[in-house]
Amino acid sequence: MNHPLPLHHTLASPSALARVRYWVGVDGGGTGTRVKLADATGRVLGQGEAGPSALGQGVAQAWRHIQAALAQAAAQAGLGELALETCALGAGLSGANVLADAQAFIDTQPGFAAVLLENDGYTTVLGAHGGAPGLVVAAGTGTVGEVLRADGSRAIASGWGWVCGDEGSGAWLGLRAMAHAQQAQDGRVPVSELARRVWAVAGQDREAILAWCAGAGQHGYASLAPLVLDVADAGDAAALALRAQAVAALEQLAHSLDPQAELPLALAGSIAKRLLAYFSGNIRARCVESQGDSADGALLLVGSALNDKTGTR
């Protein structure tokens, strides 16, 4: 399935594109960057990793870490330093939906024959379903869903951030577990095993809990999610209620993107995968194993663009 060029891209002339020898697929987020280096048939030759390349953390940093991960991938493939004009790069980056940052990323590209930029949710969909129509619900630290429909249209839902969104995510579960533990501390609700487990992490008294919350941030709250699910597995009523709410939120997300319940669904992220057994029968029946990841989806962007522009592959 060919896909339209991303809104943000730069391409050399068709004759220059025809001389591209390597494809580069980038998956970049707020904690790290993964690069897959492939030959001009899409066969992966090497992989590399580096620091974050989410555009919200800075465009210069994104390019620095992408090139560091690419150098690692090239070394793994037994190649020397790559001439960038022989490479076409596809990137799925967190923050690519912020237009100013996306354009700055394209404008400062260091000399690749092509750069194709999408948000990492879309490249995750492409990778998961091999470029075919499908849906991805990702729930780990945060939550987001994205769909590619049979008519080529796309949609995204959730992903609004942990402060007031990302329902069903690890941070969302952790926030609610902490709220329950605070209420139990006050005597507003009965003390549960969930409350005890949260206190074991955050502290046993009001001052300690307030201090923990002040410094927790998204990742701190998300770190509480596994204990919520562990305690739910053991039958704790408060944890079971939170687990049920998370399942309902993720099912609602899937339904909003595919109301006809027709498309294959791939799950991404530790929370979504752990909750699979508790989804409704229809959701479970449509779940498929991902064919690839976001970096694979970025490679598909490159292949589609080069096929369209050169007609040689």
UniProtKB/TrEMBL annotation:
Gene3D superfamilies (UniProt xref): 3.30.420.40
ATPase BadF/BadG/BcrA/BcrD type domain ranges (all copies): 24-301
Recorded superkingdom: Bacteria
Coiled coil: none
Residues in the signal sequence: none
CDD domains according to UniProt: ASKHA_NBD_GspK-like (cd24082)
One Pfam family per UniProt: BcrAD_BadFG
Name of this protein: BadF/BadG/BcrA/BcrD ATPase family protein
